[in-house]
What we know:
Blueprint: H1 6-16, E1 29-30, E2 41-45, H2 50-58, E3 63-66, H3 79-93, E4 97-100, H4 103-107, H5 112-119, E5 123-128, E6 134-144, H6 145-155, E7 164-166, E8 172-182, H7 187-190, E9 197-201, H8 205-213, E10 218-221, H9 224-229, H10 231-245, E11 251-254
Parallel strand pairs: 2-3, 2-11, 3-4, 8-9, 9-10
Antiparallel strand pairs: 1-4, 5-6, 6-8, 7-10
Amino acid sequence: MNKPTVAKLAEIIEKRYPKTLALEWDGVGLTTNNSQIEVTKILLTIDVTPEVVSQAITESAQLLISHHPLILDEEESSDIQEKRIELKMLLEENNIALYCIHTNADIAEGGVNDAFAAKLGLIKVTRFGQEQMGRIGELNENMNLETFVNLLRHNLPKTKGAIQVSGNLESEISKVAVCGGSGSSLLAEVRQTDADVFVTADLKHHAISDNKVMNGPALILISHWASEWLWLPELKKQLESDFSQSNFDVNILISEIVTDSWDFSVATKS
């Protein structure tokens, strides 16, 4: 078995997740300046946080693959940008490369949103939305909204945040639309489909209120991190298969560190 470089593995990754699929504003691909490092171990994560970087160092990984970019705009000047640059430098000092697969993974076949739909057991799945980012499919059997929420709760990785629902809990659900991460930009397009419920993250108050006025589908607001983490086990399988075809023996780990931003939640009920 040969030891591949970061650059060689990036070529293989980009066949499955082309950078050309990413939205114009996105920052996908190699973030660090060390493409010639030889790789024997990879760590997969959604977010690049100090805790995840520490894990990569402890695990002696040479490549950290993230979903969210560490640095979106190289020209940004802010206090948080300074922290991002410090993390990038820490990775480089420890001979760890950082590679990001973001909106190209949201859009691509077999990516974030296909993994999300598959985890919910959706069938007859199709794409929707201007960027073909969203997925819509059918449940194997109809159920009411409350039952579906419980199904969702059991299939998502655990976080401290709450699952929030806008809709009649007794309404019947047969068609489900999903978008991992922030799906508010798809709301108008969801209303053009026959989806009974839309599951996503980061919806704002006015968007949810307007959806009610428009008699849109039920909305379920979940953890941004959790909705996207579901893809990592699938990504691991994909990369193991792709790398083995090139005779590369690389150990791939998935970070179990919960990088969801909420630390505590309290439910209130009228």
